[in-house]
Specification:
With 148 residues, the protein is mainly alpha-helical. Helix content is 86%, strand content 0%. It has a single domain (4-147), classed as Four Helix Bundle (Hemerythrin (Met), subunit A) (Up-down Bundle), CATH 1.20.120. It is built from 5 helices and no strands.
C-alpha cells in the first residue's frame, strides 16, 4: 500500500523535475516556458490544495502538529500568490526569471522542511493504516481537482 508520504514525495520529485527544466530554459524560448509553466502551475496548485485538504487537515486535528499545518498553509498561500504574479509577467524577461527563481527556492525549502521534519512528526501521530487512508484521500482530492 502506498501511503501519504510516498505520494507526496512522488509529487515533490515530479515538481522538482519541472522546476529544474523550467530553470534551464533560455529567455529566448518563451513558448516552451509558457508550456512548462502551465504544467508547473497546475501541478503545484493541485498538490497544495489536495495536501491542505487531506494531510494538513488531518494534522490540524492534533494539537502537537497544528502549528506545522498552519505554517504549511501559509507557505502554500505564498506559492499561489507567486504563481499568480508569474502568470502576469512576460516570460521572456529577466523579471520573470528572477521571480521564478524565488518561487523555486520557496518550493524547495518547503519540500525540504516537509520531508525532513513534518513527515517524521506526522509518523508519530498517524499509524500505517491512517497514513494509507490519508494517501487514498489525497489521490481522490487530486483527481477531483483535475476534473475542475
Amino acid at each position: 500500500m502506498t501511503d501519504i508520504y510516498q505520494k507526496l514525495v512522488q509529487d515533490h520529485r515530479e515538481t522538482a523535475k519541472i522546476l529544474s527544466e523550467l530553470d534551464n530554459i533560455a529567455e529566448s524560448d518563451p513558448v516552451r516556458r509558457d508550456d512548462l509553466f502551465a504544467k508547473l502551475k497546475q501541478e503545484l496548485l493541485m498538490h497544495a490544495r489536495a495536501e491542505d485538504a487531506t494531510f494538513y487537515n488531518a494534522l490540524r486535528q492534533h494539537r502537537e502538529s497544528e502549528g506545522d499545518a498552519q505554517h504549511a498553509k501559509h507557505e502554500h498561500d505564498e506559492v499561489e500568490n507567486m504563481l499568480r504574479e508569474l502568470s502576469h509577467l512576460d516570460r521572456s524577461t529577466p523579471e520573470w526569471a528572477a521571480k521564478f527563481r524565488e518561487l523555486k527556492q520557496n518550493v524547495e525549502a518547503h519540500v525540504d522542511e516537509e520531508e525532513s521534519q513534518i513527515f517524521s512528526e506526522a509518523q508519530d501521530i498517524f499509524d500505517a493504516q491512517q497514513a494509507g487512508e490519508i494517501g487514498r484521500s489525497f489521490d481522490q482530492q487530486k483527481a477531483q481537482l483535475a476534473r475542475q
